[in-house]
Amino acid sequence: MTGLQLTALLPLLILSAGSVLVLLAGAIRPGWYHYQTAAAAALAAGALTLLLPVDSAVSGLCFTGFSRLMTLVFCGTGTMLLLTCSSYNRRRGVPGEEIPAVMLFALTGMVATVSATTLLMLFLGLEAGTFAFYILVASEPGSEHGGEAGLKYLLNGTLAAAILGLGIGLIYCDSGTLDLAALAGTRPGTISPLRMTAISLMLLGVAFKLSLVPLHLWTADVYQGAPAPVTALLSTASKGTAVAALVLLIPLFESWRGIGDLLRWLAILTMLAGNLAAMAQNSLKRLLAWSSVGQMGYVALAFAAASPRSAVFYLMAYCCAGLASFGAVAAVSGQEEADQLDGWRGLGYRSPLAGLALSTAMLSLAGIPPTAGFMAKFAVLSAALRAGELALALTGIAAAALAAYAYLRVIVTLYMKTPGDQPTGLAVEIMSVPETLLLLLAAGSIFLLGLIPSPLLDLLGRIIPVQ
User: Fold this and answer.
1) What is the spatial distance between Cα 265 and Cα 373, in angstroms, rounded to a whole number?
2) Rg (CA), the chain
3) Which of 159, 321, 433, 456 is the least buried, fewest Cβ under 10 Å from its Cβ?
């Protein structure tokens, strides 16, 4: 291996070695410092990503502009959530070095996925990240909901992994290669039934990661049962990994003309199911889970409209809202999580920063200007109209109008309802510095992307391999 190749691998080496070292250090000297150590490793990996040579490659991996941007997003998100998780678990009395170690391992899988040049590396990266989340979801000792959520995620995830792996195997049987660049060279037209089956199975495997209907039923239970910082990472960086994987797979999928019809139906059903279900929730985390389902429908809409740039921009906007909303839940949670919506009555006055962050996230998810969510929906729906997908665009508009009820209901609860008795688990106290920074950065990013979206859109237009 040359020095250049070793340099290209440094972000992955730092994350994986950091995971092992944090785990081993915990056996020697337990303590809360493991979270800071893991955060430093994630931050170092993100910083080194900026210094990598353009398109530096090793076997199975290539660090393109797109993979470097996504790696920076993952490492930045992971750094903030590791520090937030430290404060969150300290209040709840959940020690252990396993959580920061496994979070670093999840980041390792994410970075490997977005840098993959072969289907094998893509599969290994996706499943490494997902395997880490099986542990993280059930990481809180004695949590009945956490154990149930972890088991549900494990069973559904294992089936999805088998489906994705079978699709990759069939692709190899049909073409004799797993190289993404070679597979992307197939022109649309008549393809074999074997490849058609393979593409359908692979799309289903990725659809599970994105919580697209009908592979979405795990989402609400897992989001509710997992600790809030873990849910924040699952709903943002993990979703980003799946979107990035779909960006890499789209050139292969386009060899079958029928892929457009599948994406259209996935988008329509997901937008409607997610947003309608969100309206009926009294649990804030379940509301956000169903909202996540609906938001991923717009991502599928962008892919159906052949606009991966809009899909990634939408994902970025959703990540900001996800960090703000789940970060607010983590910041005000005490011994038990602040989950029931009624418990948030008047919290906008008792905890102004948490209320501001959560209400900003709700406005963005609803697509109300001048937030990032508005610009993201505008970009996706404009792409659909340019592609002649009028029915998709109208469905997206209707779904957004329905979902506005659920999001505005949260804002009304925060500012227009008087608090009753102090609910169990709702701790309104001085936030830690990491929690404050997370909420400020997330809320600020929502408005920044809403007011000045052009730089990110232009960057995505230059670095995304498919347009």
Assistant:
1) 23
2) 21
3) 433
Domain containing 332 equals 258-467
Q: Residue 299 carries which side chain, given as an amino acid letter?
A: V
Contact 166, 201 (CB under 8 A): yes
Token pair of 369, please?
């200007």
DSSP for 222-245, written as a single string: HHHHS-HHHHHHIIIIIHHHHHHH
d(CA 383, CA 362): 24
Q: Is residue 310 part of a domain?
A: yes
Give the whole-angstrom CA distance, residue 147 versus residue 95. Answer: 17
Give yes or no for a contact between 218 and 209, defined as CB atoms under 8 angstroms apart.
no
In a domain, 23, yes or no: no
Burial of 1 (0-12, 13-18, 19+ CB in 10 A): exposed
**By three-state DSSP, how is residue 264 classified?**
helix
Residue 422 is classified by DSSP as P
pLDDT in tens, 377-418: 999 999 999 988 888 899 989 998 888 888 999 898 888 877
53-60, long-range: CB < 8 A, 24+ apart? 53/4, 53/7, 53/8, 56/4, 56/5, 56/7, 56/8, 57/5, 57/8, 57/117, 58/1, 58/5, 58/8, 58/9, 60/116, 60/117, 60/118, 60/120, 60/121
Distance CA 388, CA 329 (A): 40
Over pLDDT 70: what percentage of the chain? Answer: 92
Residue 248: phi and psi, rounded to 5, are -70, -30
Residue among 88, 53, 23 nearest 328 (CA): 88
Tokens standing for residue 158: 């294992």
CB 210 within 8 A of CB 160: no
Buried b (16+ CB within 10 A) or exposed e, 349-377: ebbebbbbbbbbbbbbbbbbeebbbbbbb
Which candidate, 209, 204, 233, 232, places its Cα nearest to that of 219? 209
> pLDDT tens, 249-260?
888 887 777 788
| Stated length of the chain | 467
The verdict on residue 176 lying in a domain is no
Output the six-digit token pair for 219. Answer: 């989402």
pLDDT digits (tens, 9 = 90+) for 165-180: 999 999 988 888 888 8
pLDDT at position 467, please? 47
pLDDT score at 212:
92
Round to whole Å and give the CA distance between 216 and 207: 8
Does the residue 167 lie in any domain?
Answer: no
User: 127, 109, 116, 119: which is closest to 169 by C-alpha?
Assistant: 119
Average pLDDT value over all residues in the chain: 85
Residue 459 Cα distances to 112, 444, 451, 462, angstroms: 22, 20, 16, 5
| Residue 134: other Cβ atoms inside 10 A | 18
